[in-house]
Amino acid sequence: MFLQIIDILGTIAFAISGVLVALNKKLDPFGVFIIAFVTAVGGGTLRDVLIGQVPVFWMKNLTFMYVIAGATIFAVIFRNKLDKLRRSLFLFDTIGIGLYTVVGIEKGILADLHPIICIALGTMSACFGGVIRDILCNEIPVIFRKEIYATACIVGGIIFFMLEALTNLSTDILFLIVGLVVIAVRLAAVIFKISLPTLYKG
Amino acid sequence: MFLQIIDILGTIAFAISGVLVALNKKLDPFGVFIIAFVTAVGGGTLRDVLIGQVPVFWMKNLTFMYVIAGATIFAVIFRNKLDKLRRSLFLFDTIGIGLYTVVGIEKGILADLHPIICIALGTMSACFGGVIRDILCNEIPVIFRKEIYATACIVGGIIFFMLEALTNLSTDILFLIVGLVVIAVRLAAVIFKISLPTLYKG
Amino acid sequence: MFLQIIDILGTIAFAISGVLVALNKKLDPFGVFIIAFVTAVGGGTLRDVLIGQVPVFWMKNLTFMYVIAGATIFAVIFRNKLDKLRRSLFLFDTIGIGLYTVVGIEKGILADLHPIICIALGTMSACFGGVIRDILCNEIPVIFRKEIYATACIVGGIIFFMLEALTNLSTDILFLIVGLVVIAVRLAAVIFKISLPTLYKG
C-alpha cells in the first residue's frame, strides 16, 4: 500500500515532467499525453521488453494509464501554476527514481540475472523514460549531458548488493535503504551542485 | 482476401510516405528503403514486441518485405509524378490506418488485454510507424504536432468496444464498422480542416 | 576461441566509435558510456528483441559489459592519441561488422526464419548499433546517408544463402566466407571510394 502510493506519486511526477517538456515543444493534446506516458513508463517498458516480461507492466495494470491521464490533464490546466509546485514535483520525481530503481533491481533478481545487470535494469527503469521523452522531442537526452540522475541509481544498486553480501538484512529492508540512498544522492547532488567530473577542458 | 488487398494497399501507402520523407532528407538508397520499411511496419512491430508476439509479424510473412521493396522502387522512380497520385495515396493511407487499427485491436483482444489497452494497441499499430520514421529523420513526430490521425484511431477503438457491449453484432461486422469510422473521422478532419484544440494562445 | 577474440575486438571498435561521437557531443561520463554501450550492443539487442531471444544476449554474458567499460575508459583517456589508431580501429570495426553479420544470420537460421529475414537480422546486428547511437546523439543515422556499410552485410548474406544452396560447404566454412566477403566489400568501398548510386541530381 505504502509502496503503491509512492509508485503513483513517482508516476505523477514523471508524467508532469513529460507534459512540461511537451508543452515547451508546442505539441498538440495527443502528443502531450504520449510524451507524459512515455516519460512515466518508458524506462520500465524497455526493461520489461529486454528481459522478456511481456505484455509489459502497464498493459496488465491500468492504474498507470489512469494516473498518467489524470496527471496530464491536471498539468495542462494548471501549467502556469506548476512553478509553485516545483519543489513538490522535484521531491516526487526524486522519490520516484528511488522507487523505480528498486523495482528494476527486484525484477532483475527475479529473472535470475547478474547483480551488474540488475543495477543496469534499476537505472534503466528510473532513467530511460526521460531518455525516450527527449528523443521524441528531438533533444539529446538531458541525463547524458548534465544531471546526476543515473549515478544516484547506480550508487543505490551497488550498495544493495554490497549490503546483501555483507549483512543479514531482509530484502525489504535492503530495498528501503537503496531507495533512500538514491534519494539522498540525488538531493545532495542538487543541493550542493555536484555533477559528474567533466571530460572537457575550458 | 479482401482484407489482404487492403492491407497491401495500406502498406504501399505507408511505404511511399516513408520514401517521400526520406528523399526529402537526401538519404541514400539503403536509408530510403529502411525508412519506407519502418514507416510501414514500425507500429505493428512495436505492438508485437510490447505484447510478446515474437518473432514479429513481418518475419513470419514475407509479403510485407516484398510489397515495401516494390513500393520503394516505384516511388523512387516515379517520385516526380507522385504528386498526381496524392489523392490516391492519401486514400490508401487513410484506409491503411483504418485497417491497422482493427488489426491492433484484434491482437489485443487475442492477448486477453483490457479494452483500453486494445485501443492503445490499435492506435500504435496505425500511427507509430510514422513516429519512428520521423525520429529516424530527426524530426519531432508530425502526429504529435498537428494531424488528426491518432484521434481517428482512438475514436474508432472506443466505438468498437461500445458497440460490442451494447449490441449483438459479430466481431467481423464490428471491425468493418470501426475501420469505416476511422476512415470517416480522418477524411472529415482533413476535408473540414479540423484539428485538435490547441493548448496555446495567440 | 578465435571467434570470441574477433567478437571482443569488434565490440571494442564499436564502443570506441561510440565514445568518439559522444565526446564530440560533449556528453558527461555516464552519457559517454551509454553511447559506447548502445553502439556496441544496440544492433544485437534489437535483433534479440524482435525474434524473442530474451533476456537479450549481453544480460547473459557479462563479457560485453566489461569489454565496453574498459574500451570506454581507454578511449576517454587516450582520445587525443586515437588518431594514430584510426587504421586499426577501422580494421576492427570492419572485422566487427563481418562477424556481427554472421552472428545475426546464424541466430535467424536457429529461429527457423526465411533467408531474407536472416540477412536482415545479420545486417541489423552489424549496423543498428550505429543507428541508435546517432539517434541518441540527435543526428540522422550516418549509414542512411553516405557509408557503404549495410550494403556489405547484405551482399555477404546473399552470398551465404547462394553458396548454401549451390555447394556442400559446411556452415562454418560458409560463415568464414561471408565474414570475409563483408570485410572485403567494406574495404573495397572505402579504398576505391565507392558509394551507393545517388538518387539526387546536381
TrEMBL record, chains A, B, C:
Native organism: Paucihalobacter ruber
Membrane topology: Multi-pass membrane protein
Transmembrane residue ranges: 6-23, 30-51, 57-78, 90-110, 116-136, 148-167, 173-192
Glycine transporter domain sequence ranges: 5-77, 91-163
Lineage per the UniProt record: Bacteria, Pseudomonadati, Bacteroidota, Flavobacteriia, Flavobacteriales
Keyword terms, alphabetized: Cell membrane, Membrane, Transmembrane, Transmembrane helix
Family listed: Belongs to the UPF0126 family.
Highest taxon of the lineage: Bacteria
Pfam families named among the record's database cross-references: Gly_transporter
UniProt name for this protein: Trimeric intracellular cation channel family protein
PANTHER family noted in UniProt: INNER MEMBRANE PROTEIN, UPF0126 INNER MEMBRANE PROTEIN YADS-RELATED
One cellular-component annotation, GO: plasma membrane
Subcellular location: Cell membrane
